[in-house]
């Protein structure tokens, strides 16, 4: 009894389990059926709403359909379009039929398939295609959409360009050459027959290239295979009777198979030539007998293309090789650019030197839309030489500002990374043509790193061009870049061996002073102008220093004027150069006027107002600075001769460097354009803290004016040299003038010595302004001293470089000088040099 109950209970459990399984299976089937029904409904919904009209475009097509063009080949419609991803322009072709078996749709599918598989630079580029069925009540409409690169019908483009005469013939020759290449590629290389070459089957790209399309009738050609011309047999009714050759119009397929593969398309090319030059659409075949509009150089080839015998028709490849019509300036220029990589450097250099003048003779639309993109691409990928930049800038000047930023500037920015010295020279020579179009971010992040390499280049000409370019680029640099990089390079250029570079460096500092923040100006300007520029052996450099100080007078407080500027300027009132003396008196008058104003305010009992009032520049400072640059050009030849005499016939500056300074002078006289930056530290009221190891090269700034005097310390010890060239004798003068002796004979009392003690204890505390300008009165030594950036801490106490410049006292001779120029463990080594220095000094006396 108990066992029977167990069996009954087990059977119930099995039946319930099977029932649950059945219910689960039924539920899964119902869910599957419902999902399929939903999917079908979604599909029907998509098919019903897939076409929202040509203006709205296809909902699921990744392109937007725009306005239609007035003409297109056959039954196709041609629309403008844009990509939904990036908005780039495209062309969209559509073909509609009443049912899927429509003959037009079958031919359209053949054309789409052929265009997708056949690729050539002169054949329309395929991007995307789709076929959609739409239901409208009881009827079904099938539409094929084909997306290609952006193009325009040839007939519309010819009207838009409006070319006439020779320019029209040259452009037509360029386009016909491209279509002849496409036909030759199909016939001779692919053994394909287009079947309907005419004006409507040609489209034009934005770069004015002609491209062949309308491949609906395109088919294989093989004379040994009877079924090779299948599509042409099926769709020959799509071709207008006026475009058919005699054998094609008669449907003589046996004759067609025996003819060359180019016979039918050569006839079509003749139809294209007639429509192109007559300006009318071909109505009937007999109209092509009228050759009045055909150019004379093309007429023989035109007649051979339309030969009544298929075997005697001109092959398009022979047309390209032998026709005189394709030999003109435009075709030759574009052809040279297309095969530029095959040319040697001599051919490239000759071509690019002629290109600027040649571009003026070509149609302006062709130059800007076709030649300019080719040139920019060649420069960007390195196949074009540096002379091509001249042509690029000339063509770019014909563009609007917006087009220039889009078509030319990206190429220029990439070229700044080039290591080609000739390329960098061309870029810097024309920087005034495009510098204002560069954004501050592009200049700071992409342009300046490439330009900065020119500061340390071995070529003086390139160093000077780089220096002058900063007048355009510096206003767009960030404060960080100016403080940590630009000023470091300028500090080295201020002791450059070329006097023109040293002079232009001072001029540049005066021009860009307004873009420096307050802390940087206090650290840099006075040291750069007084310690460096006013002590230069090149008189135009001293004159530039005087005018730079006057132009930046608003940045100095009254203490700096009285203790650091006026003492250094007064010495120049007895300068050997008349121009320098005149500028020195002007500067003294200007700064004394400022001191008098301060004195009057103090007497009026307003010390706080006197201390807090800003020192404003006297009107005319900007013109004075510009005049200094102009006067630099005028006096160079005499100054160079004077300098050569002082250095025993050794010139300081090369002729090329001086000439480059003269040519660049008008550019530097233009006032710099201010470009404000939201991140500039100059906008802050307080100067940024300065590191004790500042890298701009003009020393460190202390909190107090008395503390930063430091006996006119210029602070070059904390800089690693960028280059260490062997100094010239004149450069040795400049470097020696900056190594102040530890002890000198005291010729007059120093009342301010106790007030101007520096914080640093590394140098002597005695005033070093006793005999600064001996380098002006005395000739330069024949022996060169070590460069400034090579001096060590030990040499500061052992050397006496001022003895090489200053006139010695009458009672002292070689003995004190040899003692002063001892070099540590080898005191006897400088003996001969000391004697030579004394002889030079005595001869200078």
Automatic annotation (TrEMBL):
Outline the segment boundaries, as ranges, of region: Disordered.
1-26, 639-845
Tell me which InterPro entries the record gives: ARM-like, ARM-type_fold, CIK-Related_Protein, Kinase-like_dom_sf, Prot_kinase_dom
List the SMART domains.
Answer: S_TKc (SM00220)
Q: Where is the composition biased (Low complexity)?
A: 654-663
Ranges of Basic and acidic residues compositional bias? 703-716
Q: Which residues form the Protein kinase domain?
A: 44-326
What molecular functions are annotated in GO for this chain?
ATP binding; protein kinase activity
Biased composition, class Polar residues, residue ranges: 639-653, 664-681, 745-757
Q: Where is the composition biased (Basic residues)?
A: 1-14
The UniProt keywords, alphabetically, are: Kinase, Transferase
**Name of protein:** Pkinase domain-containing protein
Species of provenance: Cephalotus follicularis
């Amino acid at each position: 009894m108990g066992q029977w109950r167990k069996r009954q209970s087990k059977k119930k459990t099995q039946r319930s389990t099977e029932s649950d399984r059945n219910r689960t299976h039924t539920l899964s089937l119902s869910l599957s059926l419902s999902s399929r029904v939903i999917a079908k409904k979604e599909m029907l919904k998509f098919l019903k709403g897939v076409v929202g009209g040509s203006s709205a475009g296809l909902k699921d097509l990744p392109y937007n359909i725009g306005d239609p063009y007035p003409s297109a080949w056959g039954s196709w419609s041609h629309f403008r379009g844009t990509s939904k991803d990036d908005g780039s322009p495209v062309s969209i072709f559509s073909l509609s039929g009443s049912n899927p078996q429509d003959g037009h749709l079958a031919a359209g599918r053949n054309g789409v398939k052929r265009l997708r598989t056949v690729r050539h630079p002169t054949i329309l580029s395929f991007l995307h295609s789709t076929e959609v069925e739409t239901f409208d009540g009881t009827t079904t409409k099938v539409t094929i959409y084909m997306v290609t690169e952006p193009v325009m019908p040839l007939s519309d483009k010819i009207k838009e360009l409006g070319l006439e005469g020779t320019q029209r013939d040259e452009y037509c020759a360029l386009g016909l050459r491209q279509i002849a290449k496409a036909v030759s590629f199909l016939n001779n290389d692919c053994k394909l027959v287009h079947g309907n070459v005419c004006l409507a089957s040609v489209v034009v790209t934005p770069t004015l290239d002609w491209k062949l399309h309308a491949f609906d009738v395109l088919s294989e050609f093989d004379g040994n295979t009877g079924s090779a011309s299948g599509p042409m047999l099926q769709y020959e009714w799509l071709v207008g009777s006026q475009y058919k050759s005699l054998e094609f119009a008669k449907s003589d397929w046996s004759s067609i198979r025996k003819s060359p593969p180019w016979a039918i398309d050569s006839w079509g090319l003749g139809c294209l030539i007639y429509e192109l030059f007559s300006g009318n659409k071909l109505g009937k075949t007999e109209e092509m007998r009228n050759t009045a509009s055909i150019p004379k150089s093309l007429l023989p080839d035109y007649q051979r293309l339309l030969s009544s015998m298929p075997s005697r028709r001109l092959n398009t490849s022979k047309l390209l090789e032998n026709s005189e019509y394709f030999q003109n300036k435009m075709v030759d220029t574009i052809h040279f650019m297309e095969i530029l990589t095959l040319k040697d450097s001599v051919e490239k250099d000759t071509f690019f030197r002629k290109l600027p003048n040649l571009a003026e003779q070509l149609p302006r639309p062709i130059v800007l839309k076709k030649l300019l993109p080719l040139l920019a691409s060649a420069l960007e990928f390195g196949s074009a030489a540096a002379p091509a930049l001249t042509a690029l800038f000339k063509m770019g000047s014909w563009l609007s500002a917006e087009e220039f930023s889009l078509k030319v500037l990206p190429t220029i920015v990439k070229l700044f990374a080039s290591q080609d010295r000739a390329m960098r020279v061309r870029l810097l020579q024309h920087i005034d043509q495009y510098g204002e179009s560069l954004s501050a971010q592009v200049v700071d992040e992409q342009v300046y790193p490439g330009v900065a390499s020119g500061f340390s280049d071995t070529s003086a000409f390139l160093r000077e061009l780089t220096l002058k370019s900063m007048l355009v680029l510096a206003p767009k640099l960030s404060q960080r870049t100016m403080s940590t990089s630009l000023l470091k390079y300028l500090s080295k250029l201020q002791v450059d061996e070329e006097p023109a570079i040293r002079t232009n460096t001072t001029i540049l500092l005066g021009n860009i002073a307004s873009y420096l923040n307050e802390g940087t100006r206090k650290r840099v300007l006075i040291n750069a102008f007084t310690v460096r520029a006013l002590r230069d052996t090149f008189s135009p450099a001293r004159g530039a220093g005087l005018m730079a100080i006057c132009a930046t007078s608003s940045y100095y407080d009254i203490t700096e004027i009285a203790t650091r500027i006026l003492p250094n300027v007064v010495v120049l009132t007895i300068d050997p150069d008349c121009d320098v003396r005149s500028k020195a008196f002007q500067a003294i008058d200007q700064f004394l006027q400022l001191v008098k104003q301060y004195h009057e305010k103090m007497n009026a009992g307003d010390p706080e107002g006197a201390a807090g009032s800003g020192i404003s520049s006297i009107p005319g400072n900007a013109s004075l600075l510009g005049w200094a640059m102009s006067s630099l050009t005028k006096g160079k030849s005499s100054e160079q001769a004077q300098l050569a005499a002082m250095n025993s016939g050794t010139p300081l500056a090369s002729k090329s460097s001086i000439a480059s300074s003269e040519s660049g002078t008008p550019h530097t006289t233009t006032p710099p354009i201010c470009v404000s930056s939201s991140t500039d530290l100059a906008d802050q009221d307080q100067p940024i803290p300065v590191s004790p190891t500042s890298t701009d090269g003009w020393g460190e700034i202390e909190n107090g004016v008395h503390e930063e005097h430091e006996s006119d310390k210029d602070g070059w010890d904390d800089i690693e040299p960028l280059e260490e060239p062997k100094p010239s004798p004149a450069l040795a003068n400049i470097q020696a003038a900056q190594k102040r002796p530890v002890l000198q004979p005291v010729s007059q009392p120093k009342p301010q010595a106790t007030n101007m003690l520096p914080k640093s204890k590394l140098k002597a505390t005695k005033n070093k302004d006793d005999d600064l300008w001996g380098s002006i009165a005395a000739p330069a030594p024949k022996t060169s001293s070590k460069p400034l950036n090579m001096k060590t801490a030990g040499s500061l106490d052992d050397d006496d470089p001022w003895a090489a410049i200053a006139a010695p006292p009458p009672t002292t001779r070689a003995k004190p000088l040899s003692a002063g120029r001892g070099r540590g463990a080898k005191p006897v080594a400088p003996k001969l040099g000391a004697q030579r220095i004394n002889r030079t000094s005595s001869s200078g006396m």
